[in-house]
Amino acid sequence: MLGLLPYLPLIPQGDPNPKQPHTFPDARSVVGDGIGQMPPAASTFASDVDGLFYFCFWLSVFFFFLIAGLLVYTTIQNRRKHESQAAASSVTHNTALEVVWTLIPTIILMVIFAWGWKGNLEQSIAPGDARQYRATASQWSWAFQHPGQKDSTLNEFWCEVGVPVKFTMSSKDVLHSFFVPAFRAKRDVLPGRYQTVWFTPTVEGDYPLFCAEYCGKDHSQMISTVHVVSKERFDEKPWNKRPEKDEDWGAQFYSSLCIACHSIDGTPRVGPSFKGLWGKTEVLADGSTVTVDRNYVHESIRNPSAKIVKGFEGVVMTPYDESMIPEEGIDAICKYLETLKD
Amino acid sequence: MTTNVPVADVAVETSNEPTNYLNCKRGFWSWAATLDHKRIGIMYLVGVTLAFLVGGIFALGIRIQLWSPEGVMFKATSEDGLAGYNQMFTLHGAFMVFMFIIPAIPGALANFALPLMLGAKDVALPRLNLASFYLWLTGTLLACYSIITGAVDTGWTFYTPYSIQTQQSVISMGLAIFILGFSSIFTGMNFIVTCHKLRARGQTWFRMPLFCWAVYSTAILQVLATPVLGITVLLLAFEHMYHIGIFDPAYGGDPVLFQHFFWFYSHPAVYIMILPGMGVISEVVSVHSRKPLFGYRLMAFSAISIGVISFIVWGHHMFTSGQSAFVMMAFSFLTFLVAIPTAIKEFSWVATIWKGSIALTAPMLYAMAFLIIFSIGGLTGIFLGALSTDIHLHDTYFVVAHFHAVMMGSTAVAFFAGVHHWWPQIWGKMYNETLAKISAVLILTGFMVTFLPQFMMGSQGMPRRYATYLPEWEGYHKVSTVGAFILGTGFALMMGYLIHSIFAGKKAKQNYWGGATLDWKTQTPPIHENFDFDPVIESDNIYDYSFLTEEKKA
Fold it and tell me: How many domains does chain A have?
């Protein structure tokens, strides 16, 4: 019934440089179906969590209409019609009634408490044979390592349907939170302490992974994609999809990491544009000059604050270490920059 | 009742108008340096209303931004990115919580009504009362200064380590909250002493109106919990300036410790907001249905037990932060315990109205809006208290909608119910009741249209504090934005007719609504000394409305 909420007409969007890394093929991969209250159910946790959710939901609907109904009924029946009208009843105390309306909610609440506690115990203990993944969060992207993977994959990962997955997570800067609505799984990611989360995906498809803990400017852009795939597809190791040409790999880094602050059309954003940057001589904030070559690009990725281009004083860029961009990745980015020389 | 006897030191004599606390002295200093609890209450009323206005403008800004998925005012691809949105929701939260809701009912309504209900001449410590207002003013001005110098973008929760790394204005905002905390502590101390020492002759504890019980319980929370907030924001400022290594993991600190400190205050703070609101509703439903409160003693004990339990539930704000399974279980259990007295209160209000002599006045409509929205706020709390569902709903719009049901839809609506209830007694003027009823209906409708879609988005997984979102949720956000403007219209209308009534409202007759407690037994509006007779409470039935009905028979 609630899914019938009317969608107002979309207003046309005139963004010349749309950043749309997060489109999901089927609208139901986000909003689910049924009565539209829960997202799609794609992990073993979902049936228990949804069961408790809908139990609370119908309980709430019942009590809401009970309270509202009593109010409306008595208001219609006992509306004051003349100035000196006294109350129709003067009962101010009824021990039996008060005991009943204390005990019944207490019993219901204890059932809900026990149900939620039991569900949570299952959520907190990962099976011993779960596949071990690694996640590193930073402002504002996720780096995932699949089992046995040496480098990491940015803003997406693959898992096999029916096989438990356990993530060990850490943050490089501030708090983040790993949240996949379709799995009913969420865990904060902290700097300086490992956190774990686990789940067993049950339905193939692509699902959004959100950062659920506020982490600064681009918090709402920190969305990744979870690919739940068949065993055959998983065995192909789709995350090892480094393109054949280095410049294409460089372009992948660009669109997952650099795009928020660096344009490729010449307009400066938070940082300088990449268009025509390769080989150019840049004037730095202290007046000295530097030629954009392999050394400069390397330094600008590993230690961005070392040389700040004039006009961008005060801008602080996140350094990317080898877990985010390996050494060969920097070569690839240089190749990509060469293609932007026009 | 005897007519007012002008007191000797009163210089100003206005034509035909009996002397009251509003006209007994005139001029700026008679207000700025007043020790009269009623005048301080009015200054608070004006102050918190302005803070509400500022917070409300930020709220509308948030809803405008979220009209379309990639944002209307701030876009990720623009030069400054989405930072402006983050500042808006931070300031909306900070102003509404620290400068509006926490001081609103204690500062404005309890200041006016509590001493009257106790038959007292003033609060126990009038100078401390005035100091508390000026601390509020200082804190608020410092908060405004911090906006000018680079608005904070940490969220009103100031979670570390982000709040340590972001701009300097976190320090001035933190100091502002430190000062506002002392304002709150002073108010609380004052009311505790007043309830203990200044009750009228014959007024035992169980002959106090329930509003006094609620304010008393709130005051205990204010005095015991607020110092922790003060210490926490000071530590945060020190961490920001000197890197003392308490919260910052880079220096061996623990960012989760900040969350424990913060919620140790901020959970009781939720009850600092809602308890006085519950007190207001108790008075309003009794007067406007001409019935004594149902289950008075159980209501009083509920107020106290809510206050006590609220100190030991803070961990439910941190169910995803990695607490041990045992601690999670304990906090979840305690959270369900606090739901029981809350449910008792809701049922008791309905039973109070049940078969009363129900007048659908403006205050009563606001109270009914409270009862309806509070039931939503309470019931959705069940989803969040249960561990397995909370993991899914935590930090989503479901939580946003839940706490707005409790803080905005309940506490703020209760505040406005109280403002409409005591308005004739405060000003001696009456507002346009038809407009007031329209605004009550607009606010109830606006609330539902704004927040029901947010519950739906939240359970589907829409995270909170997002400046942009997936296009699938666009319809829900658009409806929510429309609702916010309905709410805004309701509040604007309310401001309009209330301000109009001060200057051009009809004169309010004595005891306008027919209240039975002492706040209605004095002159309308009261004289400077509150009572020109010695108030005595002779009966346990403090909500006795028979004088209204027997008069006519005789």
Answer: 2
pLDDT at position A30, please? 54
CA distance A242 to A235: 16
Mutation for A interface: B382, B400, B513, B540, most A CBs within 10 A: B382
- Cβ contact (<8 Å) for A220 and B476? no
Euclidean distance between CA atoms A197 and A187, whole angstroms = 6
Cβ B355–A218 below 8 Å, yes or no? no
Specify the DSSP class assigned to residue A139. Answer: T
Contact residues, chain B, for A5 at CB < 8 Å: 453, 456, 475-476, 479
What is the Cα–Cα distance from B338 to B274, expressed in whole angstroms? 13
pTM score, two decimals? 0.86
Asked whether this complex has an ipTM greater than 0.95, the answer is: no
Query: B124-146 pLDDT, tens per residue?
Result: 999 999 999 999 999 999 999 98
Same domain, A174 and A188: yes
Q: What is the DSSP letter of A191?
A: B
CA distance B548 to A102: 34
Instruction: List B residues 193-232 in contact with A (Cβ-Cβ < 8 A).
Output: none
Q: A307: domain CATH number?
A: 1.10.760.10
Task: Tell me the count of A-B CB pairs closer than 8 A.
Answer: 324
Smallest Cβ–Cβ distance between B379 and the set A2, A64, A174 belongs to: A64
Same domain? For A174 and A290 the reply is no
The share of chain B scoring above pLDDT 70, in percent, equals 96
Contact B511, B528 (CB under 8 A): no
Residues B342-392 pLDDT 10s: 999 999 999 999 999 999 999 999 999 999 999 999 999 999 999 999 999
pLDDT at A263: 86
**Domain end marker among A209, A241, A273:** A241
Give residue limits of the domains in chain B: 36-547
CA distance A202 to A207: 12
Question: Which residues from B are below 8 Å from A86, CB to CB?
Answer: 290, 357, 545-546, 548-549
SS3 B201: strand
Judged against a pLDDT cut of 70, whether residue B64 lies above it is answered with: yes
Q: Name the token pair of B31.
A: 């207000």
Whether the CB of B332 is below 8 Å from some CB of chain A: the reply is: yes
Indicate whether A219 and A276 sit together in one domain: no
**Same domain as A277, residue A204:** no
Query: Spelled out in words, what is the top-level CATH class assigned to the domain B36-547?
Result: mainly alpha
Residues A19, B320: C-beta atoms closer than 8 Å: no
CB contact under 8 A, A116 and B388: yes
Locate B338 and state its tokens: 């606090």
Backbone phi, psi, residue A111, to 5°:
-60, -45
**Co-location of A52 and A162 in the same domain:** yes
Q: Is B322 on the interface with A (CB under 8 A)?
A: yes
Q: Is A71 an interface residue toward B (CB < 8 Å)? A: yes
- The whole-angstrom separation of Cα B554 and Cα B545 is 15
Q: For residue B343, which residues of chain A lie inside 8 Å, CB to CB?
A: 101-102, 105
